[in-house]
Amino acid sequence: MPKEISAVGNQRGLRDIMPAVAAEKESFEDLLNDSLGAANGLEGSVIKGLVIAVENDFVVVDAGLKSEGRVPLKEFGVPGQVPEIGIGDTVEVYLERMENKNGEAVLSREKARREEAWTELEKAFEKTERVNGVIFGRVKGGFTVDLQGAVAFLPGSQVDIRPVRDVGPLMGNTQPFQILKMDRSRGNIVVSRRAVLEESRAEQRSELIENLEEGQVLKGVVKNITDYGAFIDLGGVDGLLHVTDIAWRRINHPSEALQVGETIDVQVIRFNAETQRISLGMKQLESDPWDGVDGKYPLQARFSGRVTNITDYGAFVELEPGIEGLVHVSEMSWTKKNVHPGKIVSTSQEVEVMILDVDPNKRRISLGLKQCIDNPWENFAALHPVGTELEGEVKNITEFGLFVGLPGEIDGMIHLSDIDWEKSGETAIADYTKGDQIKAKVLDIDTDKERVSLGIKQLSEDPFAAGIANLHKGAIVTCTITKVQDNGMEVSIEEGLTGFIRRADLSRDRGEQRPDRFAEGEKVDAKITNIEKGSRKLSLSIKAKEVEEEKEAMAEYGSSDAGASLGDILGAALRSKETEIGDSDDSVEDETEEVAEEAISGTESEEENAAAAEGKKGN
C-alpha cells in the first residue's frame, strides 16, 4: 500500500510541475527568438564593436553578437598610411551577415566608413560645399580619391587648371575637392580639383588685377613654354614672357633659360586692362649691355666672338652676353661668293671679327670676317703685276668668256675678245673645255671690284698690227682673190691680211663693175682706201687705183687745156710704158691698150670738167 500511495503522490507532483516547466521553456524560446530576431535586423547596418585582438592582418571585433567578427587590418587606415588601431578601441563596423561558414560574424570597417561618408557627402553635394579627400590610386582616364571612406573618381582633366605631367606630389595629401555628381545606388562619385582651383584663382585674379601696374616686379611660376615665349602664373592670372624679353643675349628657344614649374622674378612691361593681357620681361631687371656700346667697340678694332645663329644673309656673332653683331654674307670671305654662310662658319664656332659699323640707336653692329685675313686680290696684284704670264685651270665657261683659277683661290676672266687674234670669240671659245690648263697674261687688276682681266691672244704679237706696219691708206698693193660674191670680192694680201673690194670699186667704167669678170686665185692691183683695226680688215678699190694712175699720167704728160692733143698724151704714156717693160714682153700689147684707154678716159674726164666749169661761168 505504501508503494502505491507514493506512486500516486509522484504522479500528482509531476502534474503540478509540468505546467511550470512548460511555461519556463516557452519564455526562453521567446527570449531567444527575440534576441535572434533583433540580431537579424541588424544586418546591413552600422553597429559598434570592441577590439579584443589584433592578429596578423586582421582585427577581431566583439559586436555583442553570437560570435566575434574578423575585419582586415587595412580597412582601419587611410589609403597610403599605416592603420592606427589597438585592443580596447571602440569602432563602428558594418554587419554584412550574422555568421559565415566558420560561424563568425561578417563585419566591414570600410563599408561602415563608406556609409558614414555617403551621408555626409550627400549633404555637401546638396549645399555645393567642398569636401576633403586623398588621391591614392591611378585608373584609366584619371585617379581614385578617398573621401573619408567613400571612393570617388577624379578625371584627368579635373586634376589641375593646366595639364599636370607628374601627379606624384599630389598623391597621399589631403586636398579639397568639389563633387560634380554622385549616385548612391550605383556607388558612383565624380569629383574635381580643378573647380576648386579655378574658384580660388578667380578671387586671386581680381585682387591682383586691381593692384597691377606697369613696372611692377612680381614673382611667378613658369606655367607653359612655347616656341615664342613662356606663360607665367602670377597667382591667379597668367602673363606672357616673350622670348626676346627673357635675356639681353640671343635665346633661340625659351627652354634654354626656363623650366616648367620654376619660380622667377618678372617685371610688368605692358598691361591692357580691357583685354587683361599682361606682357612680362626678365631682362628689364638687368642693366642694358648696349649702354656705351660705341665706346666699348671702336671701328676697325678686332674682337673674338661666338657664332650664335646662321641665316641666309649672314651670321650673328655674340661679342658679350647681350651684344651681338651681324657678319653679312658679303663680308665673310674674299673669294667665296654666292655661298651659304653655313658653309663658311658653324654655330658655336669662335671667330675673330672686325667692327665695321656701330649704331646704338638701332642696336646694331656690323662685323667683318674677311677683314681679319689678308686680301688675296692685293696679294695677287703685288705678286703678279700687269703683264705677268701665268698658268691656270679653266674653272668655268660662260657666254662672255672663260674663268681661270689663279693663286690665292681667286678667279680671273678671259673675255671672248681676248682669246684669239684671228677667230671670233664664239669660235675660239669652243676650243676650250672645263678643267683645261692654259696660259694667259694679266691685262688688268681692280682690287676694289675684285676683278682680274686676263688674255690669251696677248701672249703672241698681233698679226694684223704687224701686217699693216708697212701699209698705209692710199698704198697700191697686189691682192689675190679668195672669194667672189655678188656685192664684191674678198681678197688676201701677202702679209696675211684680208680685205674686201666692193662691187662699185671693181672698175671706173660702170659696165665693167661685174664680179663675174674675176675668178678666185686671180691677182689684181688695188688701192687701200681704209684700214679698219676694229674688224681687222682692209677696204680696197681698183677704181681708185685707176683714177690715181690717170691723174699721174695727166700730170706728167700734160693736158688738152695746155694745147696737147689726146694723141700726144697717149703717145707719151705709151712710150713711157714701153720703156719700163721692154719690147720683148708678151704683155706689151695688152698694157699698151690699157694705157690708151686710161689716156682716153682721162681726156674725156678733163673735157667734161672743163665744160662744167664753163657752164658755171655762164650762169
3D structure, described in words:
Strand 11 and strand 12 form a beta hairpin. The chain has about 625 residues and is of the alpha+beta class. Helices cover about 25% and strands about 35% of the residues. The longest helix has about 40 residues. Helix 8 crosses helix 10 and helix 9 runs antiparallel to helix 10. It contains ten helices and 30 strands.
End-to-end Cα distance: 224 Å
Residue windows where pLDDT falls under 50 for at least 5 positions: 1-14, 581-619
Largest sheet: 5 strands, antiparallel
Helix content: 25-40%
Number of helices: 10
Tell me the total number of β-strands. Answer: 30
Keywords:
single chain, about 625 residues, alpha+beta, five-stranded antiparallel sheet, 10 helices, rod-shaped
Topology:
Layout (H helix, E strand, L loop, with lengths): L1 H39 L4 E11 L2 E5 L6 E4 L17 E8 L8 E3 H18 L3 E10 L2 E6 L2 E6 L18 E10 L4 E5 L1 H18 L5 E9 L3 E5 L4 E5 L20 E10 L4 E5 L11 H4 L5 E9 L3 E7 L2 E6 L21 E10 L4 E5 L7 H8 L5 E10 L2 E6 L3 E6 L9 H5 L7 E10 L4 E5 L7 H5 L8 E10 L2 E6 L4 E5 L20 E10 L4 E5 H16 L8 H16 L6 H31 L1
Parallel strand pairs: 13-15, 18-20, 23-25, 28-30
Antiparallel strand pairs: 1-2, 1-4, 2-3, 4-5, 6-7, 6-9, 7-8, 9-10, 11-12, 11-14, 12-13, 14-15, 16-17, 16-19, 17-18, 19-20, 21-22, 21-24, 22-23, 24-25, 26-27, 26-29, 27-28, 29-30
